[in-house]
Amino acid sequence: MNGPRIHVGLAPELRMFAVPERRRERTAVVTDGASTLGHVIESLGVPLTEVGGLLVDGRETPVSHVPRAGETVEVCAVARPQRVPGAPLRFLLDVHLGTLARRLRLLGVDAAYESEDLGDPALAALSAAQRRVLLSRDRGLLRRRELWAGAYVYSDRPDDQLRDILGRFTPELAPWTRCTACNGPLEDADKDTVGERLEHGTRRTYDVFAQCTACERVYWRGAHHARLEAIVQQAVGEFGAAVR
After folding, report:
1. Which intervals hold domain Ubiquitin Mut7-C (predicted)?
2. Residue 121 scores a pLDDT above 60
């Protein structure tokens, strides 16, 4: 590009997205004179889903602004907790975030997820159609124009991913109310009603059951309950009491 030169400062939280030579407190960027500020920021590697605001020479400015020579741009990170207006807070997770999806569902958070890769265009369109916040570690996916709302998942560790999303969006928690397999709502189930779905040892050992109203999967407090309860208690303790 051979156009106006501007000076861009990235918030510390956003510098990880830029190439090493752009991670300084402020860096000079030569634009083409026609691209919007949003396009310039994305060209530095920063998804706009992670941008909380833009200040041009100290003034709040939209991403549609076309930079002029000599301007100083401060790129702010998203404020936490982040509010998502216009729809109930619901999530859509890409194919690589299955563990995070199951843990969100365990906490009663509406988290849609497909185990097969639908492809970036279909995921972005589904986000728009269902008005869900798309969670992904794929920056290219988060740049798609048809996306309704999105968020970059900063860690590759499920424990940190869960803490990141709960801290960023502060969804209401209602543990043990959603199917971890399909995201449907759970309801209490009578042992006699679900008995034919259970192995003999399970029928003999357990008396309290829940069943998904969508896929009919049956749940009980089995061998993995202690591990799941630990996840629930940590989340509730850190991010607020459960809503029942």
Report:
1. 5-81
2. yes
CA distances from 52 to 32, 55, 97, 238 (A): 24, 10, 24, 24
Q: Copy the structure tokens of residue 129.
A: 């159609």
- Strand pairing partners for 51? 77
